[in-house]
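Hi there, hope your week has been kind to you so far. No rush at all, and the record is pasted right below.
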Amino acid sequence: MALSAPSPVPPGLGDFYREHLLKLLRWVDSWPPDLCPADLRAYVRDFHRLSLAAQRLWARLLLRKGPRFIVSELAYEEVGDPAGPVLALLLGGFLSLEYAVPARLALLPRATLLTLCETLNLPRPRDQRRPALEATLAAAAPALLARSLLPLTVRRERFRATQRLGFAYFGETEGDLSALVVSALQQRRFAQAPRGAPWPSRAAFEAALALHEAADGSWSPELRIPEAAALRRQLFCALAWPGLRPRDEARRGRGLWRLARHARAAGEGSFALRVLGALPPAVEGLASLRWLNETGAREQEAWRLGALNATPEGGVARYDYGRGRCRPAPKLQTMRARLALPPGRQPGRVEGAALRHLGAFRGWHWENRFPAWVLYLSAADLIFAPSPGAFTHPQQTAPHDLFTVDFYSARAEALEARCAALGSGAFGLEAAQGLWHRFGGYANALVPRQLPSSALWLAMGALAQTPERWAALVAWLLRAPLRCRRGFPDLTLLSKDGELSFVEVKGPGDQLRREQREWLTLLPRWGFSATCLALEAACDAG
């Protein structure tokens, strides 16, 4: 079944939102018949049977908040008189009439509620805020209905099918028609737009949707109360099974981690350990083991997590259950300064003071943005290269396995060749600029969409003067692209001689995290200058 071509639009009337909805429906309609769920096929079929005005109105309703609407407020330029389209949507099962008086009152402004009280000669409550007014009018519901004082109200239906339709197109529960419209307004481009079903079977689609819904449910604070034990176990059963793709595994891991914290807060330490035992390998690590130690777990109770953590030296740091921490890390070069820090905790407060104190020839507070830009400008073509199972949805900002341990192994040959080209100087600044011209307009999960600044190109030019350093940095990031999001030094400095250096700034009372220690250990090994600047407050600035 194929949707018809867009109907001609009368002069002066737009068809913008309907066209985007049709684009979403065509994607689902392109699935093979044996893979497309029956409810989605029925949704597409029934929408296609609607009149043009009803289709336009339904596209508008999908962009509005809430499930209930007053019919008189649904007059849009491209729809015209809403009476006919609303009737068509009612007959098609997309809308239903709302009879509940409290729900209809909730849509009215406060001034209208006061007018209704005067019309019915009801005594105004002393508290004239909305809850009190609504309660007073709800008690007089028979009079309101008898005199037809409430406006005609409809309720949006097929919520479940619409949610499943969005998941089918975006591959996540957060995506809906508004995301598609915003992307079009921002003129965002995406790497690939494959046709066909992204899941191998209908059962795989249902399993992926159930996994996402279970992970979303783990955000609920109600899971912390002791009485929610049965709900916690149901959620654990939904999250314990492996995901279908690396991105699903990451979501499953985050959901299990949150569920373990809820169980611990509810006093179920043994159940929390069982939940942590189901964590995917990509989520396991030192944080889980420290959490287990804090709960008093023995090493044999944590056998599933394996107490291993890779170090920059290539060795293994074992978690010391006796001391409750890892083995001591190597000492780092640290500078200390006493400065008058601005009051408050505004972002960049400490880093800005440190940048002024250092007085570098050029300096920027970039933090993790710099390694992300370096990685993108060095390997964007490899990141967005077609790979089996990497791109399955029209609006992906990264391959599914970008932030997983499988990213490097699936592209090892091409990534190693790029690192060799960087180290030999065959891939230089001009090649990086060429990658930006090819892939700079793509929406991606690494860097913001705005153009790289002249300061960034200045830093990239300095980096290109030392190809071996550039290659070492990119090779480290390519083996685990998630590293470009964690722990990179706050300040990037450029000397008059064109040398890059990095400074991690710590305010009063702050401590270095493990990822920050890792970067401060690695950067000097590659030839960069990297230090930690510990600031002490001399006095508060007035």
About this structure: The radius of gyration is 29 Å. The chain is about 45% helix and 10% strand.
